[in-house]
Write a structure and sequence with these properties.
Layout: E1 3-10, H1 18-21, H2 30-41, E2 52-59, E3 65-69, H3 74-82, E4 97-99, H4 101-110, H5 112-115, H6 120-134, E5 136-138, H7 143-149, H8 156-168
Parallel strand pairs: 4-5
Antiparallel strand pairs: 1-2, 2-3
Helix pairs in contact: 3-4, 3-6, 4-6, 4-8, 6-7
């Protein structure tokens, strides 16, 4: 089994052009690969990311492939979500923006595989903690307060929504 790794640069949700066409030399259907990349990266188009590296691991015998987008760090996604370029210079004291809990859960959903959490709630907690370190409040609340509220029922509907999406995609 010979595997080849190919890296291409795409615009999230809009893969196409010469970068995708070159994949035909490996016996892949460029349209099918573009659809898979678009499906995996479409959500990132909401964050104003123009160029994203995507790694394709190709089995040259079976022509099967795995799409692995190289995702930006959590802090970068949080800053993009609030429209800032840099985070707080005094974590916990300086507030640079506010984000909805739904957006926090969306970032945990995007970064799910990289966070390596036991469950989605713990992934969300990692993103909430990152909010504090870059100076972002969640629904107007200090992230420490949101962490305390996560043990109750306050955010369970949003968490279940993203857990269901992960299950449907076979990622949870």
């Amino acid at each position: 089994m010979v595997k080849r790794v190919v890296k291409i640069t795409v615009t999230p949700g809009k893969a196409g052009g010469p970068a995708i066409q070159q994949l035909s030399q490996y016996g892949l259907d460029p349209a099918k690969v573009a659809d898979e990349i678009n499906k995996r990266t479409r959500i990132l188009s909401n964050y104003g990311i123009n160029n994203l590296f995507v790694e394709l691991e190709i089995d040259e015998e079976s022509k099967r492939y795995v799409v692995k987008p190289e995702l930006p760090p959590i802090g970068d996604l949080l800053l993009k979500a609030v429209g800032k370029d840099t985070g707080s210079h005094q974590a916990g004291k300086e507030i640079i923006g506010n984000i909805s809990f739904e957006k926090v859960a969306e970032i945990a959903y995007i970064k799910w595989e990289e966070l390596r959490s036991r469950d989605f709630l713990n992934a969300v907690k990692q993103v909430v903690s990152a909010c504090r370190s870059v100076g972002i409040t969640i629904d107007g609340k200090d992230p420490k307060q949101v962490l305390k509220e996560l043990s109750g029922e306050a955010y369970q509907g949003v968490i279940r929504k993203f857990e269901d999406m992960l299950r449907q995609e076979g990622r949870l």
